[in-house]
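Fold this sequence, please.
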Amino acid sequence: MLDILIIGGGPIGIACGLAAQRAGLSYLIVEKGCLVNSLFNYPSTMTFFSTSEKLEIGGIPFVTISNKPVRAEALEYYRRVAVSNNMNINLFEEVTNINKQTKGGYGITTAKARYLAKNVILSTGFYDIAVNLDIPGENLPKVQHYYKDPAYYAMQKVVVVGSSNSAIDVALETYRKGAEVTLVIRGSEISHRVKYWVRPDIINRIKEGSIKAYFNSNLKAIREDEVDIETPEGAITIPNDFVMAMTGYKPNFDFLKKMGINLSHDKFIPEYNAKTMESNLPGLYLAGVVVGGMDTHLWFIENSRVHADMIVNDIVGKRVSG
């Protein structure tokens, strides 16, 4: 029986594995995709808000040319951390079920095997499930919740829904590749969470008319070559080739409920001990952004990497006291 099974091979899952390894605990990281799968699926042009120092895990230096690393640098850093530490990681192995064992610990079933572990750490992130618009036409192939490269949208009419970092990056990058960009924003302004060096850029592009923005507005319907937008001045219809629905993402709440983790009724925040990160299920811990429920902007690598030591210290403390 393993001391710890870690679900999720992202930066925080790797950090938990490093902490377990250094504490002399047996562990296995199980990841349903590639290593740091969420980061791999980030846009190819993505630059982190955090500095490289604040993305470090396990005290291992993250050296970059510029102050703020790009996606490719982060992918290489976390790969080197995993390989150089000979970490126990099974990739492309999805966890399908977790059961509490009568004699203690958990049985974990994956698509490939079954494991027994005294403790489980859930570090699954939130990037796999997009928040839907729930409007007619959302299932059309032209509607995308994930964005990879702006060159794909050159010379196309693109509607971008949202006003946070992902939406603004898409708007600016596709515009600079020759797309005709329209922003549809539910609020009255560009989000103040947008990266400080990007926010003035998008505001100026809107002011000069290079990018059209409809504030206090909602996308109401999508068709093959046009969309309907509800604006304060009334409904309008505009020609359209692609809709980039940058409406955010969410953890797999159904999976959490299936395991028996209690969730709050408003923002689906899981129940956990803030000092140990243990959930309402003894021996099942939460780490990383999954802790925030629908408030996915509260936790990120920079401030949740400490969860690894908190969890492992608690597990070691229980073993010593027991």
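The mean pLDDT is 94. The two ends are 17 Å apart (CA to CA).
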